[in-house]
Amino acid sequence: MKFNMKRTLLCSLAFGWISLFWGSYDAIMQSIDYDVFELNSVLHGVIIAADNILGLILLPLFGKLSDKARTPFGNRKPFIVVGTVIAVLGFMGVCVFASLGKEYFLPFIICLFITLSAMAAYRSPALALVPDVNPDKFRSIANAVSNVVSVVLTVVAMLYFYVFMMFDGYYAIGISFSATTLIMLIVFCATVHENKFKEDVRIESELAEEQDRLDAEIRRLNSELKDTYGDDAEERILSSKNNALDVQSFTEDSLLHLPSIDAALGHGYLARRREEKKKDGGKKRRRARGHDAFTRFCILAVVFCFYMTYNALTSNFVKYAEYILGFAQNEAIIPLILAQAAAMIAFPVASFLSGKIGRRNTMLIGFAIMIAAFSGSIAFSTPHPILYVLFMVLGVSFGLVMVNIYPFFLETSKSSKIGEDTGIFSMSMTVAMVITPILSGALISATGSWFGSGENDGFRILFPYSIFFLALAFILTMVIKNKKPSEKKKEVLELDR
Fold this sequence. Notes:
- The chain is mainly alpha-helical.
- The chain folds into two domains: 5-198 and 284-479, Growth Hormone, Chain: A (Up-down Bundle), CATH 1.20.1250; 207-283, no CATH class.
- The chain is built from 18 helices and no strands.
- Helix 2 (13-36) runs parallel beside helix 12, helix 6 (139-164) runs antiparallel to helix 7 and helix 14 runs antiparallel to helix 18 (462-479).
- The chain is globular, with a radius of gyration of 28 Å.
- The two termini are 13 Å apart.
């Protein structure tokens, strides 16, 4: 069975423009909240958390609804298309009212609520679409492809911020985001045929399973032949065939002399073994269910800790770079651009490593590197080339985790509940993103006096805060039992274009 790159790329477009939105949103909201509406760090955290509060309700709800929906266009695609159109219109309103000034705070908040509700409504269906069209053994590489698309669009969003914020360009950012998203949406609608893609995957999976069964049967027969005739079984059978006077004599000479399992072991023994297997199988299934439940809990806890760090960084780093590192406002995004670019390099590496050492061990490496990179970055108070290098290392470690954490969770899912479980996964992420902007904002406000004379100095707490939750994520990942790739699931990656 081959990995279908084209199909995965097309389905990843929705994931891409979600990243385009969040890249634009996280950057400009820091500027809007502090510079336009003059909010403090706590109120900024509340506004940043608003989308995630909505997500707690809407992500699992719409994930489950998309599992059950049946339309001629598929069960994910309608949610994605309608949600995207509403979100684009809402975000344009956000940018317009921010440009008009602080007197337009109320219509700004209304447009923001509409935008964030639409984003939360179609995020789970969009995330579930890629695993829907890929079997489990290809989900790490599929997730890597999706993350590459995500990073490319996130970098595009950051470049929009870098260019247009030199001119206070909220209008320009809104128009650029909307135009880019609508172009991708048109391509998505024209090329993604969800029902056909899923049927293709079903057929491909059935053919692959049948081939696996045939290969297993051939191996079993070869083993029995060797047990009967020794290591030179093939030569002896070929010799028997060449000397046979007809098909019947060949059959009697070779095939009929294969060992009979029933004769060798006896029917009574086989019956007892079947009963034992039934009992053992029930125990194993119960143990497996218990193990899966514990694994799911631990992975969701890891997701929570990881996004406590990630969202605190994305929602505060622009101002951290301004106040602590001395960057100009539009240049403050440069370290994050470098981190995202480095992550793209790490995605194929992460997929390769997960096939060799397992998803859990790959994530552990990522968390360890992340902790080291954040620890090294604390020392800097001015822009420096080494700081850029550290952020590139941070991006690599981010890639190692992101490629594997979602497929790792889906290992415990049923194929009929991918949308629902994606909603649960997203909800764990969302709970963290509700808490962390408010908590980090409160810490920034409270610790300003520790580091200096004003609240701006409180941004120094950002990196120690991040390290704390990454350390927790590392410990929780250690608790999970590693699932090494089995020989059965190892495959040479072939691309079906």
